[in-house]
Amino acid sequence: MKNLLLTTAFSLALATPVFAAGTHGGGHGEAKAESHAADHAAMMLVGQPGKAEGVDRTLEVSMRETDDGTMIFEPSTFEIQPGETIRFKVRNDGELEHEFVIDTIEQNVVHKAQMAQMDMEHDDPNSIRLDPGADGEVIWTFANEGTFEFACLIPGHYESGMHGPINVGMKMAQANMEYTKGTVKKVDAKGGKVTINHGPLLNLDMPAMTMVFRADEALIARMSEGQDIEFVAEPVKGKLTVTQLK
Ligand SMILES: [Cu+2]
Question: Does pTM top 0.70 for this prediction?
Answer without folding.
Answer: no
